[in-house]
Specification:
There is one protein chain. The protein is an alpha/beta fold. It has helices spanning about 10-20, 45-55, 70-80, 130-140, and strands spanning about 40-45, 65-70, 85-90, 105-110, 120-125. It has a single domain, classed as 3-Layer(aba) Sandwich (Rossmann fold), CATH 3.40.50. The chain has a five-stranded parallel β-sheet with strand order 2-1-3-4-5. The longest helix has 14 residues, at about 10-20. It starts with 7 loop residues before the first helix and ends in a 7-residue tail after the last helix.
């Protein structure tokens, strides 16, 4: 008799969950010097949000997008390859403490008013947001290669 933990279905489900948590390897566009690209680290538990942010920033060929589903994964990725910018979903905002020296866009449900000010390097982006708004915030923090601000 087969051990239930060794069934093909269980292995497939575990592999699927592991793959969903892993960040896909970024592929540079042809003709772009990989060393000249800026790195954006997207930190969000929801794979759909990470995918949406990646799609929003796709037009910026000067960016390399990395993804992390957890704060631990984000800190590990940042230690290996320090990003130029973080895009952080509000529930993972604790990642800003160990990576406080980095510029960040934090996706929030409501823009904080009257509370403690965010650090100068951190910009809030209220949900729901458009691709244009995210690209504009990233452009403000990193600079826009087309000169748009």
């Amino acid at each position: 008799m087969r051990d239930p933990d060794q069934s093909p279905r269980v292995r497939l489900e575990v592999a699927f969950l592991d793959a969903e948590q892993a960040a896909p390897a970024p592929t540079p566009p042809p003709g772009v010097d990989e060393r000249a690209r800026l790195t954006v680290l997207v930190v969000a538990a929801e794979a759909d949000l990470r995918c949406y942010v990646r799609e929003c920033l796709r037009e910026r060929s000067d960016l390399r997008i990395l993804e992390a589903a957890t704060i631990t994964a984000a800190v590990t990725l940042a230690a290996d390859r320090p990003p130029d910018l973080l895009v952080v979903d509000e529930p993972e905002r604790d990642v800003l403490a160990p990576l406080s020296q980095l510029r960040a866009v934090i996706i929030v449900d409501d823009v904080p008013r009257g509370g403690p000010a965010l650090p100068a390097l951190v910009r809030p982006l209220a949900r729901p947001f458009t691709a244009e708004r995210l690209v504009a915030e990233v452009g403000q923090l990193l600079g826009d290669p087309r000169g748009l601000r």
